[in-house]
From TrEMBL:
Portion of the full-length sequence here: 1 to 163 of 486
Protein's job: GTPase that plays an essential role in the late steps of ribosome biogenesis.
Taxonomic source organism: Pelagimonas phthalicica
Assembly and oligomerization: Associates with the 50S ribosomal subunit.
Family, per entry: Belongs to the TRAFAC class TrmE-Era-EngA-EngB-Septin-like GTPase superfamily. EngA (Der) GTPase family.
Superkingdom field: Bacteria
Domain EngA-type G residues, every copy: 3-163
UniProt-annotated binding residues for GTP 1: 9-16, 56-60, 119-122
Protein name, per record: GTPase Der
Source taxonomy: Bacteria, Pseudomonadati, Pseudomonadota, Alphaproteobacteria, Rhodobacterales
C-alpha cells in the first residue's frame, strides 16, 4: 500500500529542496528569493524501495502581513487532510522562529501523524537548532540535509512503518 506525505513548515526551511530530492525531477521551484506564489504541488516520490506521493506546500512566500498565520493554517490544514503523514521541517541553522511555533500548534492536534525533521543539519552549525527542535514537543527530530542528502536513511526508517 502506498501513502501520501505532506512536507510542511514555514518558508525557506527547505521543503522544495527535499521535494525535489524525493521526486528526482525538478517539479517544484526552488528559489532563494521569495516572490513566486505557489500553493500545493504533488509528485511521485521514491526513497529506497518505498514509493509514495509527496506534497510540497508553498504559496506563503508573498505573505508578509499578519494574515500569514491564517493562510499558513489554511494551507497546512489542507495538506494535512490530504496526507497520511506530515513531515514538519524546521531550519536547524535558523533555530526555532515564531512561525515554527504556529505550525507546531497546528500540527500538535495531529501529532500521531507528524514526523519532525531538522533540515540544514549538515555540520556543527546546526546543533543548537536541533536541540531547540526537541523543545517543540513533537518527539525526537530527524537530522536531515535535503541539499546534501544526509539523513535519508533515517527518513526511510521513519516512513517504513507507514508504507
Ligand atoms: P522552502 O521555501 O521551504 O521550499 O525552501 P527551499 O527548498 O526553497 O530552500 C530554501 C533555501 O534553503 C534554498 O537556498 C536552499 O538551497 C536552502 N537549503 C535547502 N535545504 C538545505 C540544506 O539541507 N542545507 C542548507 N545549508 N541549505 C539548504
Ligand atoms: Mg518551496
Amino acid at each position: 500500500m502506498s501513502f501520501t506525505l505532506a512536507i510542511v513548515g514555514r518558508p525557506n526551511v527547505g521543503k522544495s529542496t527535499l521535494f525535489n530530492r524525493l521526486v528526482g525531477k525538478r517539479l517544484a521551484l526552488v528559489d532563494d528569493q521569495p516572490g513566486v506564489t505557489r500553493d500545493l504541488r504533488e509528485g511521485e516520490a521514491k526513497l529506497g524501495d518505498i514509493r509514495f506521493t509527496v506534497i510540497d506546500t508553498a504559496g506563503l512566500e508573498n505573505e508578509t502581513d499578519d494574515s500569514l498565520p491564517a493562510r499558513m493554517r489554511r494551507l497546512t490544514e489542507r495538506a494535512v487532510d490530504m496526507a497520511d503523514v506530515c513531515l514538519f521541517l524546521i531550519d536547524a541553522r535558523a533555530g526555532i522562529l515564531p512561525d515554527d511555533e504556529v505550525f507546531t500548534e497546528i500540527l500538535r492536534k495531529r501529532a500521531d501523524k507528524v514526523i519532525l525533521a531538522a533540515n540544514k543539519a549538515e555540520g556543527v552549525a546546526a546543533d543548537a537548532g536541533v536541540m531547540e527542535a526537541y523543545a517543540l514537543g513533537l518527539g525526537e527530530p530527524l537530522r536531515i540535509s535535503a541539499e546534501h542528502g544526509e539523513g535519508m536513511n533515517e527518513l526511510y526508517s521513519a516512513l517504513l512503518p507507514i508504507d
